[in-house]
Design a protein that fits this description.
Elements lengths: L2 E5 L2 E3 L5 E8 L8 E6 L6 E6 L5 E3 L7 E6 L4 E6 L8 E7 L9 E5 L2
Parallel strand pairs: 2-10
Antiparallel strand pairs: 1-3, 3-8, 4-5, 4-9, 5-6, 7-8, 9-10
């Protein structure tokens, strides 16, 4: 079955950086668009960024210019590079295979001094 395993979350200071990874298995990774979503306590899950099969990217306005989504099809991995982190970026970040019900388990990102 499909598995998505996120890693790279943790504690960062405001202005700092983190890089999230999502390793996929049980699927033909290159066939699918990938997305990163996040959910803060008491809030709905929201889109952060997506990347298509052809590597076209989209971003939420709140992260444009700070976050970069990318993919490595040879490694079945999607990445989210997060720079200039803000406290409001604190959330659980989830990897998602676009157009499916496949989600990762999430990785916690906390931005605090």
């Amino acid at each position: 079955q499909v598995q998505l395993v996120e890693s790279g979350g943790g504690l960062a200071q405001p202005g700092g950086s983190l890089r999230l990874s999502c390793v996929a298995s049980g699927m033909t990774f290159s066939f699918y668009g990938m997305g990163w979503y996040r959910q803060a306590p008491g809030q709905q899950r929201e889109l952060v960024a997506t990347i298509t099969r052809g590597r076209r990217t989209t971003y939420a306005d709140s992260v444009k210019g700070r976050f970069t989504i990318s993919r490595d099809n040879a490694r079945n991995t999607a990445y989210l590079q997060m720079n200039a982190l803000k406290p409001e970026d604190t959330a659980v970040y989830y990897c998602h295979v676009e157009g499916t019900t496949w989600w990762g388990q999430g990785t916690q990102v906390t931005v605090s001094s």
